[in-house]
Protein 1
Amino acid sequence: MNLDKNTIDKLAEHLENAELQAFDVTKITDDHPDMDWEDAYAIQDVIRHRKEGRGNKTVGLKCGLTSFAKMKQMGVEVPCFGFVSDYMSCAEGSEIKTSELIHPKVEAEICIVTKAPLKGPGCHVGAVMAAIDFVIPGVEIIDSRYRDFKFDLKSVIADNTSASRFVVGGRPRNVEELDLRTLGVVLEKNGQIMDMATGAAVMGHPAAAVAELANHLGKRGQEIPAGTFIMTGGVTAAIAVEAGDSVNVRFQDLGSVSMRFV
Ligand code: 0L1
Ligand code: MG
C-alpha cells in the first residue's frame, strides 16, 4: 500500500459525499498517482464501514467490468468488485429519482444468491454452480462519481465500482433449469431495443465472474458467505438514462425487470 490511513479515510469521505450528495469529482489518481490496488480497495472498504456505521446494511456484492466489451472499452483485463447497500435497492417497477444521481446508466445483470460459502483461491465455475441457490434477473444503475466519466480502474474501485441503485425482479429460477451462457437478454429504453446479449458476454459464463470474486476475497482472507446476493456484472452495454425514461429488460426464462426514471 502506498497511501497512509489518514489519506485513505479522507478519500473515502470525499467519494462517499459525492455519491450521497450527487456531485461529481475529478478522478482521485490525479492527486494520488501512486495509489495502488490495495489502496483502492481499502478506500472502498472505508466507504462500506462508513455506511454500516450509520446503520445501512450491506445487502450484496457486485462484479464489475466483467463483460469482454466493457473490459475492452476500459482497456482493462481484470474485473473489479464492489458492494451494494440496502438503500440502493429499488422495487421492480418503481420510480428512480434522477435528482439523487449524477449521470446514471443502466445495465442488465444476471444475479445469483448462494446457498453455500465460496472461498478462493482455486474457486472455479463448477464450485460456483454447486453453490448457487437460485438465479434472479436484475438491472444495475451505475453512477460513476467521476466528472465526464474520466476515470481509471483504480479510481473506479475506490468509488465502489460506481454502485448506485439496483432493481431485481422477474422470476427466480433454479440454476439447473437454465443455460447461463446462452441466456438471452434484451434491454429496452422507452420501448426501443438499445442492446441485446447473452450470458456468455460475462467472462464466457456468469459463474466465472463469481469465481473471480471468491478468488479476489480469498486473497484477503475473506469468503462469500451462504445466502449472498451477487450481481455478476453487466451483460449488455451500459445505457445512459434521464428523467422521463422507462427501462424494461427481458431475460430469457427469467421474466423481465422494469423501472422508470423521474
Ligand atoms: O458495474 C460495473 O460494471 C462497474 C462499472 C464501472 C465503470 C463505470 O461507471 O462505467
Ligand atoms: Mg454492473
Note: The radius of gyration is 17 Å.
Protein 2
Amino acid sequence: MESDPNFPVGVFDSGVGGLSILKALRAELPQEDFVYFADSGHAPYGERDPEHVIERSRSITQQLLAQHRIKALVVACNTATAAAIHVLRAEFPALPIVGVEPALKPAVALSQTRHIGVMATRGTLASAKFQTLLASLAGQAEFTLQPCDGLADAIEHHDATRVIALCEAYTKAIGLFGLKSGEKDTLVLGCTHYAFAEDTLHALLGPQVQLIETGLPVALHTRRLLSATGLLRPQGTGQAQFQTTGQPAELQQAVARWLRQDVAVAHSA
Ligand code: DGL
C-alpha cells in the first residue's frame, strides 16, 4: 500500500527508554503523529541473545505496519539497532528506518582529555555493529566500555535505590572522571534508558563531566529522512499513541514523569 505523509511514525524500544528519543522527536517534528511501542513484556533486550531481539523487532514492525500503517520507523533502542536494523531494512525495504547507536563520534569531538567512558548494554557492546564503530575511531580517543547489566531494568521499574547503586558501581568501574589529563571528561549513554538516570549520574560525577545521549541527532536525522522520501507532514498538530506488551500503568506513569503528559496506554499481545 502507498505510504502517505499523514500516516504516523512508529517508535519502539524494549520499554520506557525510547521515550527519551520520542521527546526529542516530538520537539523537532511537532506536526507529526507518533505511535510508541514499549516491548516491556519481553525486556530487557540487552541481556538476551540477538535472535530474541531480531524476532521481537520483526514482530513489532509487522504490528505497527498492520495496525497503524506507519510511514517510517525509529528503532529507539541501541540494542535492537545493533542486533536487528539490518534485518528490518532487508525485510521491509519500502519503510524508511532510523536507528540509534552510542554517540562515540560526538564524544570524540567534545572530549578535551580524549578519555571517554561508554555505558551500554552487554548486547550492544558485543555487537559487530558497535565493534565496527569503535574500530573506525581507533587512535582518536581512549574508550572505556562498561556493560551495565540490570540498569535498564531498574530504570524501567523506576527503582531509584537500584538505579543509584548501579550507577555508582558502574561509573566507579569505568575509572576516574574529571578534567585532568588521563581522566574521563565525557560519558556516552549508549542505551536510551540511561537518559533517565542523567540526574543521578551528574550527582555522582559532577557537572563538569559531559553526558552524551542521542535524542536530538536522531530527531534531526528522522526529519532529513522524511523530507528526502517526501513523507514529511507539512502541517498538523501531532498526536502520540502509546502501547505496551507490559503493564500499561508503568508506561503511563513513565510518560507522566518524563514527558509530563497524561495519556491512555493500550496493551499489546
Ligand atoms: N533501551 C535499550 C537500549 O537502548 C535497551 C534496554 C534493554 O532492554 O536492555 O539499548
Note: The first helix runs from residue 19 to 28.
